[in-house]
Amino acid sequence: VEETLVLVKPDGVARNLTGEILRRIEAKGYSLVDIRMIEPDRALLAEHYAEHEGKPFYEPLVEFMLSGPVVALRVAGNRVIEGFRALAGTTDPTTAAPGTIRGDFGRDWGLAVQQNLVHGSDSPESAARELALWFSA
Ligand code: ATP
């Protein structure tokens, strides 16, 4: 069965939305396989966000992800990668559809980075790489 990595980003944890986000994942019928609260270091984030290195939002993104604990979820289900991204909504929380996590709880705070509450892997290759990264010893 397919697995994905979901991260509740520091804004989601700080706003006490971890339970609500997990509730939506479980209500959809996906299964929680593993869960971990992590304070990532720069090395972990550099690997996680390698594809964005050099982009204008890269440094603010890393600083944001260092700003507090992150909850990592290993989630399983048929087509869960695509399904979680649909639950999350589009990247920009201002225009993410109402009914999605980002659409219901996110907005533009006027900061350098989109604080959009969650991350979800975007392909089976990314999921395998990211799950190994966040759930390694
Ligand atoms: P994620 O990978 O976190 O699920 P995503 O796939 O929707 O989100 P990416 O394009 O992978 O978005 O960008 C990673 C993260 O960087 C986004 O979730 C957001 O926090 C931030 N980000 C992306 N694009 C921008 C932008 N143009 N301006 C500010 N922040 C951005």
UniProtKB/TrEMBL annotation:
The Nucleoside diphosphate kinase-like domain, residue ranges: 1-137
Keyword annotations from UniProtKB, A to Z: ATP-binding, Cytoplasm, Kinase, Magnesium, Metal-binding, Nucleotide metabolism, Nucleotide-binding, Phosphoprotein, Transferase
Cofactor: Mg(2+)
Gene Ontology terms, MF aspect: ATP binding; metal ion binding; nucleoside diphosphate kinase activity
Gene3D superfamilies, per database record: Nucleoside diphosphate kinase-like domain
Cellular compartments annotated: Cytoplasm
Positions of ATP binding: K9, F57, R85, T91, R102, N116
One GO-annotated biological process of the protein: GTP biosynthetic process
EC number: 2.7.4.6
Matching PROSITE patterns: NDPK, NDPK_LIKE
Record-level GO cellular component terms: cytoplasm
Pfam families xrefs: NDK
Catalytic residue positions: H119
Enzyme class: transferase
SMART domains: NDK
Predominant location category: cytoplasm
Catalytic activity: a ribonucleoside 5'-diphosphate + ATP = a ribonucleoside 5'-triphosphate + ADP; a 2'-deoxyribonucleoside 5'-diphosphate + ATP = a 2'-deoxyribonucleoside 5'-triphosphate + ADP
SUPFAM superfamilies per UniProt: Nucleoside diphosphate kinase, NDK (SSF54919)
HAMAP family on file: NDP_kinase
Subunit and interaction comment: Homotetramer.
Family: Belongs to the NDK family.
Its biological purpose: Major role in the synthesis of nucleoside triphosphates other than ATP. The ATP gamma phosphate is transferred to the NDP beta phosphate via a ping-pong mechanism, using a phosphorylated active-site intermediate.
Name recorded for this polypeptide: Nucleoside diphosphate kinase
Species: Labedella populi
